[in-house]
Write a structure and sequence with these properties.
The structure is a single chain. With 314 residues, the protein is an alpha/beta fold. The chain folds into 2 domains: 192 residues, D-Maltodextrin-Binding Protein, domain 2; 115 residues, Glycine betaine-binding periplasmic protein, domain 2 (D-Maltodextrin-Binding Protein, domain 2, 3-Layer(aba) Sandwich), CATH 3.40.190.100. The protein contains 15 helices and 10 strands. Strands 4, 5, 6, 7, 8, 9 and 10 form a 7-stranded mixed sheet that branches. A 3-stranded parallel sheet has the order 1-3-2. Strand 6, helix 7 and strand 7 form a beta-alpha-beta unit. Helix 1 crosses helix 13. It is globular.
């Protein structure tokens, strides 16, 4: 496997000014492709898949782990070249104003069947809990607790706001926040013991493969906490289409089914495999899908991109 990509990890952003970016040289050409990658398993593997393919094309991909706001600023200031996790509607307030100003280009919805919202296991669903309004009817069984991800995350703040507003009787409920891994460990234990549990869920993610879960609905149209239909965008600087039409074409065609990304997340986050190995093994086993992503795309020296990839991943 040819893979000369440089992986740059910024484990913390302490000391950065708000909206600033770790110092990177100005991009003189697009031999390098600089990805901004929040610390989420889905975009980690998705970026790794894209990076391994671009390496075969003669590009030099780099990945830098950064907070979402820093990634968006980096794209707008041409310090980054691509972001594969523009989650709408959650990140719309960050991305859309810059897109309207002509600084960012939403290239493609690389995952279009994503979902975010509160969910329950099948045995709770089968007991009649289908909607947000059903939760408080069974407050004792749920211990008036919603399990959420990190405090400060967009969905966590939305849930907190609904609790403060006593939405559908949730005013005396609490949200128990923790890391995604800790939340899912707790939820998994509750499900194993057949306890009633409601939690922040989303797809793509391995939880949709491991747990028989159901997303709650809501009588309120466009509810922000119930089965929110979401789209994940590939976002690049607005100049990319002109600067490198070949790279832009690849990004335009790089669209992933949520079931595929859920499997990537499962193999990486749940099974604890290295993301580089997950990406390599998946590419080697799914060249038919890769062929569609590379249709009409060329290597840096003008060869057919798919043939170059197939030569190393057969």
């Amino acid at each position: 496997m040819k893979h000369s990509r440089q992986l740059l990890h910024a484990a913390t952003l302490t000391g950065l000014l708000a909206g600033s970016l770790l110092s990177l040289p100005a991009q003189a050409d697009l031999d390098q492709v600089r990805f901004g990658v929040p610390p989420w398993p889905g975009v980690t593997v998705k970026t790794e898949v894209a990076s391994q393919l671009l390496s075969e094309l003669g590009y030099q991909p780099q990945s830098q782990e950064l907070a979402v706001s820093v990634v968006i600023n980096g794209l707008a200031t041409h310090n980054l070249d691509a972001y594969l996790a523009g989650w709408y509607p959650t990140e719309k307030p960050l991305i859309e104003p810059l897109a309207e100003q002509g600084k960012l280009d939403k290239v493609v919805a690389n995952v279009s069947d994503a979902v975010n919202g509160l969910a329950v296991p099948d045995y709770v669903w089968n007991a009649g809990v289908h909607k947000i309004s059903d939760l408080d009817k069974h407050a004792d069984q749920f211990n008036s607790t919603i399990y959420g991800i990190e405090a400060g995350a967009s969905m966590s703040e939305i849930i907190d706001n609904k609790i403060k507003a006593d939405y559908e009787g949730l005013g005396d409920w609490t949200q128990k926040n923790s890391s995604t891994a800790a939340m899912l460990a707790q939820v998994g234990q509750e499900i194993q013991n057949k306890q009633w549990v409601v939690f922040n869920a989303w797809k793509p993610h391995w939880m949709n493969l491991s747990y028989n879960l159901h997303y709650l609905t809501d009588d309120q149209p466009d509810s922000p906490i119930a089965s929110v239909q979401s789209t994940v965008w590939t976002v690049v600087p607005s100049s990319l289409k002109q600067d490198d039409p070949n790279l832009y074409r690849f990004f335009k065609q790089f669209v992933v089914d949520s079931r595929i990304q859920s499997k990537w997340i499962y193999d990486y986050s749940h099974e604890k495999n290295d993301p580089e190995q997950v990406a390599h093994d998946w590419i080697a086993a799914n060249l038919d899908t890769v062929q569609g992503w590379l249709e009409g795309v060329k290597t840096k020296d003008g060869r057919d991109a798919f043939e170059a990839v197939r030569a190393d991943f057969h």
